[in-house]
Write a structure and sequence with these properties.
Keywords: Signal
Structural class: alpha/beta
Strand content: 15-25%
Protein name: Family 10 glycosylhydrolase
Number of strands: 20
Number of helices: 14
Strand order of the largest sheet: 2-3-4-8-9-10-12-13
Organism: Nonomuraea monospora
Shape: globular
Oligomer: single chain
Helix content: 25-40%
Pfam families: GHL10
């Protein structure tokens, strides 16, 4: 949950003539013979990608369900209204060439899906534990997949309740059944990260979702041990005495989080190899004042304040990606955006961990910082991302702000950087392989169609420029669409290329088809 994040950030600172289709490699000239002949592709070096149009880039948006921030827009609405509101969000994201959604399915040990382990979320019906009469998760996933988007299921691991009374919870709530798992802190109820039983339960909940639903990723946000509350103590003394084994309290707490991260990582990939597991930590790991290898910043330290050691996860390879929340503008005195982007880029360098950046879209227009009153600040931050080879994309908080387009900032972002679609970055350790190239490609007017390829989750459609001299699939400058099914209606006549994509976006060779 990111309620209150503005305060934290400020303080811490995309007549028919049908010809036979044929397969050719990414470097082959479209002016080659129309026959199915084998043409040697030029060396890869001959195809230089245009950095303005990266072929692979994750572009995501967080959809927060807690306190009805993004979806459902209001508790107690009909299923049809909830569906329509969700489709509106996805259509807005698709219009902006986004290719991933991060949907909060477990805000506080509750479920926005049918679960035997935790009660229905109050954000669906208005009443915790009340059956909404439908299981939203298959719909949420299917609608994302229809639009060629990855679906990451977002879990909050340790929040048990927004209140601190176990008696007020539904009878089947784990915190009510196991009050010894909980710690009251700052008027809320948290699971104790130091208890093995808590780690087992959280892992079981996540594995259950991965097993039963076609999710593409499992996602944690920045909440681990709770953010500090003045005058409050997180009382985990008994667990520390039992399990601390001579460690310092802070080291033990970080170790508990690291254990959960490793346990979830192992469980997710054991269930389904292709499912990604990643975390969006608070943007500052440590400041140089606490650690000479930290960032040149002066904000709150995730390592010291909430016991989240993202460096440890990266080094251990227990996450597939990190997505630090860099919700400060360029030039911020305490936490400069550019400084932090470079720091995180250096952290993942040489590792197998992908780096995405969490963008503070919700901050655009905020009057407490003049930088956010500039319509181009958000786009400029993506420019900083693009300057780093390590940054593989960005995710925006949050969906309602994407739809609202404050100060026209989203339109500016799309015009400058997202004018073309993009494939997802590939991570080889997750398995997968390129499907067969599409077969039977043909055109009827401007409608292209082909036979579905086995193992394909989607297809990329490129337009061959009239010059015919470019390497058409090297980057996204000629990419017109990424679609989920075996057809696409193009906007104009011409020559097109179609490739098959598996669910991880490994790409096949291209097939050529002419549309009249």
């Amino acid at each position: 949950m990111r309620t209150g994040r503005p305060l934290l950030a400020a303080a811490a600172l995309a007549v028919a003539t049908t010809t036979a289709a044929y397969v050719f490699g990414p470097g082959e000239s479209p002016a080659a013979s129309e026959k199915k002949t084998t043409v040697a592709a030029p060396p890869a070096a001959a195809c230089k990608a245009d950095a303005r149009y990266p072929k692979r880039e994750l572009r995501g948006v967080w959809i927060a369900t807690t306190q009805n921030i993004d979806w459902p827009s209001k508790a107690g609405q009909s299923a049809d209204r909830q569906k329509a509101d969700y489709v509106k969000i996805l259509d807005s994201a698709a219009k902006r060439n986004m290719n991933a959604v991060f949907v909060q399915v477990r805000p506080a040990s509750d479920a926005l899906y049918k679960s035997s382990l935790e009660p229905w979320s109050q954000y669906l019906t208005g009443t915790a534990g009340k059956d909404p009469g439908w299981d939203p998760l298959p719909f949420l996933i299917d609608e994302a997949h229809k639009r060629g988007m990855e679906f990451h299921a977002w879990f909050n691991p340790y929040r048990a309740s927004y209140g601190d009374s176990t008696a007020a919870l539904p009878a089947n709530h784990p915190a009510r059944q196991h009050p010894d798992w909980t710690v009251k802190y700052g008027g809320r109820l948290y699971y104790n990260p130091g208890l093995p039983a808590v780690r087992e339960h959280v892992t079981k909940v996540i594995t259950d979702v991965v097993d039963r639903y076609d999710v593409d990723g499992v996602h944690f946000d920045d909440y681990f041990y709770p953010y500090p509350v003045a005058g409050a103590k997180f009382d985990d003394t008994a667990a520390f005495r039992k399990y601390g084994k001579g460690d310092k309290l802070a080291d033990w707490r970080r170790g508990n989080v690291n254990k959960l991260v490793a346990q979830v990582d192992e469980a997710v990939h054991a269930a389904k190899e292709h499912v990604k597991f990643g975390i969006s930590p608070f943007g500052i790991w440590r400041n140089k004042a606490q650690d000479p290898t930290g960032s040149s910043t002066s904000g709150m330290s995730a390592y010291d304040s909430i016991y989240a050691d993202a460096r440890a996860w990266i080094k251990a390879g227990t996450v597939d990606y990190v997505l630090p929340q860099l919700y400060w503008p360029r030039g911020h005195k305490l936490a400069d955006y550019t400084t932090l982007t470079r720091w995180w880029s250096n952290e993942v360098k040489g590792s197998d961990v992908q780096l995405y950046i969490g963008q503070g879209l919700y901050r655009v227009g905020a009057k407490d910082d003049k930088a956010w009153l500039k319509p181009g600040e958000l786009a400029a931050q993506v420019g900083v991302n693009r300057a780093s080879k390590q940054v593989d994309g960005a995710v925006y908080f949050s969906a309602k702000n994407l739809v609202a387009n404050p100060l026209g900032s989203v339109d500016r972002l799309v015009k400058t950087y997202y004018s073309r679609p993009a494939l997802l970055p590939v991570k080889d350790s997750l398995g997968g392989s390129a499907p067969a190239a599409p077969a039977g490609a043909k055109a009827e007017g401007t409608k292209l169609s082909w036979k579905a390829s086995e193992g394909a989750r989607g297809y990329a459609v490129y337009q061959v420029p009239k010059s015919g001299k470019d390497c058409h699939t090297t980057d996204a400058r000629n990419l017109v669409a990424v679609v989920s099914g075996p057809s696409y209606t193009v906007k104009s006549a011409g020559t097109y290329l179609v490739t098959s994509l598996d669910r991880l976006h490994h790409e096949s060779k291209a097939v050529k088809v002419k549309a009249g």
